[in-house]
Design goal:
Blueprint: E1 46-57, E2 60-73, E3 80-94, E4 97-109, E5 115-124, E6 127-136, E7 143-148, E8 153-158, E9 163-164, H1 166-175, E10 183-190, E11 195-211, E12 214-227, E13 238-242, E14 248-255, E15 259-266, H2 268-276, H3 283-286, E16 289-290, E17 301-310, H4 316-320, E18 331-335, E19 341-346, H5 376-384, H6 392-406, E20 408-409, H7 418-421, E21 426-427, H8 429-442, E22 447-460, E23 463-478, E24 481-485, E25 498-504, H9 516-519, E26 525-534
Parallel strand pairs: 9-10, 20-21
Antiparallel strand pairs: 1-2, 1-15, 2-3, 3-4, 4-5, 5-6, 6-7, 7-8, 10-11, 11-12, 12-13, 13-14, 14-15, 16-23, 17-19, 17-26, 18-19, 22-23, 22-25, 23-24
Helix pairs in contact: 5-8, 6-8
Length: 536
């Protein structure tokens, strides 16, 4: 019997869960942010401090970081407050396309460092992608009220007067008179996940570093965050180096998908000069995982066994946590004695007919910020493309071919909602995966996105070489099983070159957190082809 589709009434509503790494996946898929002030005072107060830093990745200049502190009236006009802003701008490449990323985090804090209001804004290539504004509840100071850039109210969060602002944290080592070996614990707000977190600051002995061509003795300060409630991303540690006047002259942080990013104090002129000739590091190329040998006719292979190992010591569990690789009917993984992981990947196929198959959970039918299934434009395109005609498998593969034919490849395109993407069709595998999922859902077929690696061959000065590169595709629930389809290829299946890391429904997600599991592995692996099977 054909597999018929039934309309599901009602859809999940998108809830607020801001940012993550994911906001910090610029080279691969992500986009950092820049913010506006809204309820915060405009930056017209008295400028007390301004510091510029050159941002470097692998010793290559890739951007600037600027911090300003202004004295301004607070939420209580009778008392002064400090408007603190930290602005980051990066210029990067992704497979030859230039990506300009901006992020600004601001807060309004009183003389004791208590945060009264905050904002976060992120954007790519001049387009604002995320904007969040928070303000202490006048009636309940233990709550922070949030809204987005359009003024829509978001879920309030529990707050505390003990949360220290950006300026207070800069001053903390000196004010607490911390000595080498001593630590202090405070609460702070982490904008990339929009949560209050615990922070442990530890003073380390002085060390000599090269600054401005000279060897200078600086005091190192390590900041280690601790999540107080569950989040989609793990937060990395940050290090500062202080001069004799307790001013931060160097900062270092680990960012998933980028690696170690170093910020060195400079001047506006020196920063501009350093960035004048830079084209930006190509993170697309840097994210590729080299393989030891090619796979002939990958699209015809029945099964390929890969072995992934981390660069250096340790294993994948150390890098990515307890479940670094997804397992399902198409893919199985096992940990090897040497710390590598062996993954057997089968080519996808037409799903078997199953009578009385279970239905998928409702989250795979719903609408959200990125997969906005309920938008009239999405439903119109799904119907026009034939998503409501025929059985599920025929309709799903028809939609896959439709996405593949209309996609206009653009590695620099910002990630946006499907309804917005349909206005231009410019994007990459992420856009195709989200769009195919949305069109399937609008045609009453449960769908989700899958993220992982794809076998590719790249030509260079040394000839054509095999790699695994980041990729996204779609999985559709048909006859009680998830079946992979790829809107960038339109083959009616996925191949043994699609190595899955994770999947996600995007239910109640307003950020790029679903990409985090893949981001943890970027630039940290090497690969081998162990075995290739062809035929039935």
């Amino acid at each position: 019997m054909p597999n018929f589709r039934f309309a599901h009434q009602g859809h999940a509503t998108a809830a607020f869960q801001l940012g993550s790494m994911l906001a910090w996946l610029p080279g691969l898929l992500l986009l950092p942010l820049l913010l506006t002030a809204a309820d915060l005072p405009s930056p017209s107060g008295k400028l007390l401090e301004e510091a510029w830093y050159l941002v470097q990745l692998d010793q290559e200049a890739v951007g600037s970081w600027r911090m300003t502190v202004r004295e301004t009236p607070g939420t209580d006009p009778s008392k002064s407050a400090f408007l603190v802003s930290q602005e980051l701008e990066l210029v990067l490449q992704r497979y030859g396309s230039t990506i300009r990323l901006k992020q600004e985090v601001s807060n309004l804090e009183d003389n004791e460092g208590r945060v009264e209001a905050l904002t976060l804004k992120q954007g790519q290539n001049g387009k604002v992608l995320v904007q969040i504004e928070g303000k202490r509840d006048a009636e309940d100071p233990d709550r922070m009220l949030f809204r987005d850039g359009a003024g829509k109210e978001l879920s309030p969060q529990t707050w505390s007067g003990s949360v220290l602002g950006l300026r207070a944290r800069e001053q903390l080592p000196e004010k607490r008179n911390l000595q080498a070996g001593e630590s202090a614990r405070i609460l702070g707000h982490e904008p990339l996940i929009n949560q209050v977190v615990g922070l442990t600051v530890t003073m380390l002995p002085p060390e000599k570093l090269a600054v401005g061509g000279e060897s200078v003795e600086l005091v190192r300060v390590d900041w280690k965050p601790k999540l107080l409630r569950e989040a989609a991303v793990e937060l990395g540690s940050t290090s500062w180096w202080l001069d004799a006047e307790h001013k931060v002259v160097r900062r270092k942080m680990q960012l998933d998908g980028l690696g170690a990013v170093v910020l060195t104090k400079s001047t506006p002129e020196a920063v501009r000069l350093a960035l004048r000739e830079t084209k930006g590091k190509d993170l697309g190329e840097a994210s590729l995982i080299p393989l030891d040998r090619p796979v002939p006719n990958i699209k015809q292979a029945r099964r390929v066994i890969y072995r992934l190992r981390p660069k250096g010591e340790g294993n994948l569990f150390d890098i990515a946590g307890p479940n670094p690789i997804a397992e399902d009917l198409r893919q199985q993984a096992r940990l090897m004695p040497d710390g590598s992981i062996e993954i057997a990947v089968f080519a996808g196929k037409k799903p078997d007919r199953v009578v009385g198959a279970a239905d998928a959970p409702r989250e795979f039918y719903g609408t959200s910020k990125f997969i906005d299934t309920d938008h009239p434009k999405v439903r119109q395109v799904a119907a026009m493309a034939g998503g409501l005609d025929g059985d599920c498998w025929t309709a799903a593969t028809r939609l896959e071919r439709f996405v593949q034919r209309n996609l206009k490849p653009d590695s620099a395109a910002p990630l946006a909602s499907v309804s917005e993407f349909l206005g231009s069709w410019r994007g990459d595998c992420r856009h195709a995966a989200l769009t195919l999922a949305a069109l399937c859902r609008a045609s009453n077929m449960p769908a989700r996105t899958a993220f992982g690696l794809l076998y590719v061959q790249k030509s260079g000065s040394g000839g054509t070489k095999p790699y695994l590169g980041f990729h996204a595709w779609t999985e559709v629930w048909i006859d009680g099983q998830w079946v992979g389809l790829d809107g960038t290829q339109g083959m009616g299946k996925i191949s043994a070159g699609h190595l899955k890391i994770c999947d996600h429904s995007w239910d109640k997600v307003d950020n790029l957190a679903p990409l985090a599991p893949v981001q943890k592995l970027v630039g940290k692996l090497t690969g081998e082809v162990v075995r290739v099977d062809v035929g039935d």
